[in-house]
Amino acid sequence: MSEKSSCCGQGDKHQHNHQEQDSDHESCSCGPHEHHHESGDHHVHSHSEDHHGPNCNHGDHHDHDHHSHDHDHKHGDACCGNHSADTVNRTVTIEGMHCGDCALKLEKSISRLDGVAQVQVNFATAKMSLGYDQSKLDFGTITNQIRNLGYSLLEQAAAKQSSIFRIEGMDCADCAQKLEKPVGALVSVNQVMVNYGAAKMTVEHDGSAEQAVIQTVNQAGYTATLETGGKPLQTDERSFWRRNNKVMPTAISGLIFTVAWGLELGNIMSESTSSILYALAMIIGGYRIARTGIYGLRSRTIGMDLLMTVAALGAGLIGQWEEGAAVVFLFSLGETLEAYTMDRTRKSIRGLMDLSPREALVRRNGEDMMIAIEAIQIGDTVIVKPGERIAMDGLISKGSSTVNQAPITGESVPVEKTEGDEVFAGTVNQQGALEVRVTKLSKDNTLSRIITLVEDAQAQKAPSQRFVDVFAKYYTPAVLVIALLIAIIPPLFMGESFQEWFYRALMMLVVSCPCALVISTPVSIVSAIGNAARNGVLIKGGAHLERLGAVSVVAFDKTGTLTAGIPQVTGIIPLDSRTEDEVVSIAAGVESASEHPVAQAIVTKAKQDNVPMKPASMFTSVTGRGAQAIIGGTLFYIGSPRWFIHELNVSLENIKDTVQRLEQQGQTVMILGTDHDIWAIFAVADEIRTTSKSTLEHLKAIGIEKTVMLTGDNRGTAQAVAAKLGDIDVRSELLPEDKVSSIKELMSNHGHVAMIGDGINDAPALATATVGIAMGAAGTDTALETADVALMADDLSKLPYAIGLSRRALWIIKQNIAFSLLIKAVFLIMIFMGTSTLWMAVLADTGSSLIVIANGMRLLRTRVGTTGA
């Protein structure tokens, strides 16, 4: 234990475990505590969890004289548990400790941090218990110290509960920091993540923090509403202008400022009277700003609110009441307009929540009743009338209709649905009445998952934001120091006017907060990801958005991506006088347990021809080759010709010409046989998607250097498909590991590569590529979770749109960053030259933020087919 806490006075025994039994206990001079030494973990202390105050009485082993301590070590607040009200106690798990010395090193290092009251590291359990003063020390500093020592904080030991809060009033990106610090400092809170783009805050806590979080958020000047099941407990249907608490003070402040300025301009009132009106405008418009700024200062966060408060008060201090009132009004107006534009941006995703009805007509025990969707259970039957939105994910048990799936998949044409087909919550039933058997709870349905994944994606920082974060980290403190020097040095050492240079220092304060720069990337990412989601493309984060825009090569899986993925048996050639029904019966029996599309084509053929499938046992799927199973005591194989030749050592010399002819026609050849005999040849073909050729042409048009087909099919089949598609390279007869090697080679030669497949069978290749894109992910949970980008429908035409949207987003982000930096540079020069005024600086700061937001919001209006630039 550290020297700060070596006397905890906790428990009847004070036990120390050391590797060296002859230790002199320099770190523990606790007096007459009973010591136990064991060879084992280097430094482990065990105490009870009681905090002992001045009336401590623990029996024979704990002889404290609380009036005159005779301990040899520093006996501060940590001793005997005399913690201040700001002390936070936490237990965390440390990953990376390999010996007892690691525990000792970690304990000593953390104990040296100012604000740590006590720390105890248990190597055996990999736990660290610590108490620290949250007014002196941020938990993030402790985490960084742990990482700097080469360890990682794995988890919180206490039971965890995550709560999501909707935050009203966040209009600038540094609002996130203003909330994360005070909420994170709450005793029962383990972790806080503020999603500025979605106006949400996720809090991980011990289950008792929700009211404290809401109160803390309210004190910081915002409003928090707890969400359950993805929906807020209370929804405010009022317009932005009625529900936002900034609108009225801003309007009144602006009115008073305008009246005072007009009366002063017409010489209708005296300067002193107008100054009173200006001061009143400052107070009304600036009260909320000052309160938020002071609260941020208490949590050691210097935000724009504090800087503007200082600038306005400073202007009043030197008699520039008009300037001070202008600062307050323009800043308030800018904040309000920023909040309005961001509210519109966030609604692009919140609108998805309104697609699902709040209740549905459910048939239970023969009776139809309206039930809230949260109360609908798996297996319930939901009645959907023509023109209604479908409330739950499920399978149609009765009826047929056309369904508009645009909100989920982005498909513009309604899809025919009949019994057994899957439908999604939020889609629209157009014609017939449907009965839907529910397969997912409302919180787990596809629409809810899309909303959650999109909001999580909007919260992730893109690589371009790293530059912004680093710049902002050093820019604001540097400018604050410069402002202080401007106010002091010229008047003291150069004989210049104090008022003049103090005024310039105030202008430096105004331009010291890089709001426009900080918001330049998030607003663009939020808008782009929201636009993509509305068009059936799920982009899983800013990093994937940027990487997608940088790809120069697109690799395609063939089956199910370039082709429809519904192969059909086009030919069967039985050998050695066997009948077609005989070989189909055996082949279908082997393939009956396989999920591969070609296998399912053979099973479907047997069902269509009413051929009974032979019962099979010991089924084994051999990846990239085929399948095998025992039928009637004989081990049968069905798979690619090269499997029989190279691994089963079965000669195909007698059928070589037939196999080549079929492959040249673009058909996939499957051989049925044993380890010494060939029974039949199956030819299977898959139709090319109608959008494949046009998609490849569009990709070339937007500057994609190369498109490549990666397939396990034979070269003849692959070349035949490629000939119908046009300009696409072919790599055939690839096993899954060969596809990974091909992706790595393409990345080595061409840079960023996107791989598009079904999201499951191509998982290794998708994970290896710069960006992995899953196609037809609406009904596939695995694809939604694992892919970097998911095309919700089986529509390849969305791929050029997604790449074009990403490129446009990158370009707009660069525009925003360059513009923000340019504005700052221009006004810094103007301040030094003495050509700027305080209100001009405020107008430039808030104006640049509004321009950046408006520029980013252009991505919301980008449509499919307009992203080629």
Please explain how this structure is put together:
It is found in: Cell membrane. Its EC number is 7.2.2.21. This is Copper-exporting P-type ATPase. Its main location: membrane. It is a multi-pass membrane protein. The protein is elongated. A 7-stranded mixed β-sheet has the order 21-33-32-31-22-29-30, with helices on both faces. Residues about 1-85, about 155-160 and about 230-235 have low confidence and may be disordered. It is built from 27 helices and 33 strands. The protein is α+β, with helices and mostly antiparallel strands and about 850 residues long. Helix 12 runs antiparallel to helix 13 (about 500-510) and helix 26 runs antiparallel to helix 27 (about 840-855). Among the domains are: about 5-155, Alpha-Beta Plaits; about 160-235, Alpha-Beta Plaits; about 360-445, Calcium-transporting ATPase, cytoplasmic transduction domain A; about 570-685, Calcium-transporting ATPase, cytoplasmic domain N. Helices cover about 45% and strands about 20% of the residues.
Oligomer: single chain
Specify the overall morphology: elongated
Unreliable stretches covering 5 or more consecutive residues:
1-84, 155-159, 229-236
Q: What is the first-to-last residue Cα distance? A: 62 Å
Helix content: 40-55%
Coarse structural class: alpha+beta
CATH T-level fold name of the domain at 3-156: Alpha-Beta Plaits
Per CATH, the class of the domain at 3-156 reads: Alpha Beta
Q: Would you tell me the overall average pLDDT?
A: 77
Number of strands: 33
Beta-strand portion reads 15-25%
CA gyration radius, whole angstroms:
35 Å
Number of helices: 27
Q: For the largest sheet, list the strands in their spatial order.
A: 21-33-32-31-22-29-30
Largest sheet descriptor: 7 strands, mixed
Assign the CATH architecture of the domain at 3-156.
Answer: 2-Layer Sandwich
